[in-house]
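Final report, Chapter 2: Outcomes

The project's central promise was a pipeline that accepts a single protein chain and returns its three-dimensional structure in a standardized token representation, suitable for archiving and comparison. That pipeline is now operational. To close this chapter, we reproduce one record exactly as it appears in the project archive, with the input sequence first and the structure output second.
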Amino acid sequence: QSDTITYRGLPGLKQALWNITKAEGEYKTFEVDHISNLLDIKFSRSLRQRALDLGIRTYDLSNSKVHRKADMEPVDLSLSKIRYISPDILKIKFEIIIYNQQITLIDYFKPEPIALEIFNPSLSLMMNQMFDAFWKMAEEVEWVD
């Protein structure tokens, strides 16, 4: 079984991102950038706080080796893990979020932002396996204040 939902514009993008708070325990992201560097701080912080309140673990693969905790507030580093993957191995230009049996694809940079949610157990299994393989290749990030 498969289903897709398309979200357009900033309100649609925010809805698709808010939907990750429905993750059952965790979500994994091929991260273009921290959400607070892409969207407004108020929304970014409320999304992060909701995930913290629900105890959702997050795993982010990033092409940035150095990260500032201030860019991720509020953050609990026991729940939020980030690893660096060299762009020579995987250049992340399109955000992919994996949770439950769903994949969310996000393009922040079109003239109009767009997100696509795909509900498909087989695709979710495959994307989880791909993420986990890249995660094993990735390195710890450097944290600065």
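Archive annotation: The chain has four helices and ten strands.
This record, like all others produced under the grant, will remain available to the consortium after the project formally closes.
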